[in-house]
Amino acid sequence: MRLSLMASSGILALSACALTPAGTGAFTVMAPASFDRTFTAAAGAMQDQGLALSLEDPVNGIVVGSLESSAVMADVDQLADGHVRVTFDSTGANDPALMARISSSYNRRMGR
Asked: Where is the secretion signal located (predicted)?
């Protein structure tokens, strides 16, 4: 009897608790990025950082640009699961922060 009374009290107490959201801040639900949007954002991010684009090949997903003696290549791939992946590679980079700035520009253009 005592055990069932304690169990009933516990269930009653828990049922009075209300679950509220952790915060009232705004959030954004984003749809997966399209290949075209990703390609355009990658090329734009490179231009944002002063690179002169020498190749924009959306069919193969390649963007190549240069700044002084640095060359940067963006490779945009459509994955089998529908997601899009972009990678930036550099050669001869005199500015070690260049890739970080390009990445930041890309994220900003993608709304991240």
From this structure: 1-18
Query: How do the domains of the chain map onto residue ranges?
Result: 32-109
Pairing relation of β-strands 62-67 and 70-78? antiparallel
pLDDT in tens, 17-57: 444 444 445 544 455 679 999 999 999 999 999 999 999 99
pLDDT digits (tens, 9 = 90+) for 69-91: 889 999 999 999 889 999 999 98
Q: Which residues of 22-33 are buried (b: 16+ CB within 10 A; e: fewer)?
A: eeeeeeeeeeeb
Pick the CATH number of 32-109 from 3.30.310.80, 3.30.200.20, 3.30.70.240, 3.40.50.150: 3.30.310.80
